[in-house]
Amino acid sequence: MKNGRKIFIVTAIFILLITTYLIIVNHQKVNKQEEIQDIHKEDTHNMKRQISIINHHITILFELNDSQASQDLYNQLPLEVNVENFSDNEKMFYPEKLNTTNTPLADAKKGTLCYYVPWGDVVMFYKDYGMGSQLYELGECISGKDDIEKLSGVIKVEKAD
């Protein structure tokens, strides 16, 4: 009987050690997976969103800021909309309403992409403008700034990344 009891105790301890080892290994795998997911989320968050404006043979690329309004615009894409002239320094189009919470006011220069709340339009400046009440910055042109003035008719607004 004593031998049987010893074998039982040794077997129980062995099973307990193996179970503990497997729990530790599984916990390490879960922690590693969570770490990888956190890194991926951080990388995704740090990536700048880009949009392209396409019209005939022209492609203009904008990099969006991290504001709520730019995220709202990005989430509406792709769009096919009419582009309109306004004044002597901007082209504009009308998306669905954007939420300007945590969106910075604009100091618009050539190449600035903005949202003007009273009219609900997205504005692409091809000449300097400055600041305006309820004019919010969405991003900056990173390619094709000199072509904004040439836009006409229907444009495609697409995610570029």
Characterize this entry briefly.
This protein is 34% helix and 37% strand.
Structure, described:
It comes from Allocoprobacillus halotolerans. Pfam families: Cyclophil_like2. The protein has 2 helices and 9 strands. With about 160 residues, it is an alpha+beta fold. It has 2 domains: about 45 residues; about 110 residues, Cyclophilin. The protein has an 8-stranded antiparallel β-barrel. The longest helix is centred in the first third of the chain and has 45 residues. The radius of gyration is 28 Å and the shape is rod-shaped.
Span between termini: 73 Å
Query: What's the domain count?
Result: 2
* Helix-and-strand structural type: alpha+beta
Number of strands: 9
CATH topology of the largest domain: Cyclophilin
CATH class of the largest domain: Mainly Beta
What letter string, H or E per element, gives the SSE order?
HEEHEEEEEEE
Major sheet details: 8 strands, antiparallel, barrel
Q: How much helix is in the residues?
A: 25-40%
Helix count from the secondary structure assignment: 2
Widest β-sheet, arrangement of strands: 1-2-8-6-7-4-3-9
Poorly predicted runs of 5 or more residues = none
Query: What is the overall pLDDT average?
Result: 89
Please indicate the percent range of residues in DSSP E strands (runs of 2 or more): 35-45%
What integer value in Å does the Rg equal? 28 Å
Corresponding CATH architecture of the largest domain: Beta Barrel
General form: rod-shaped
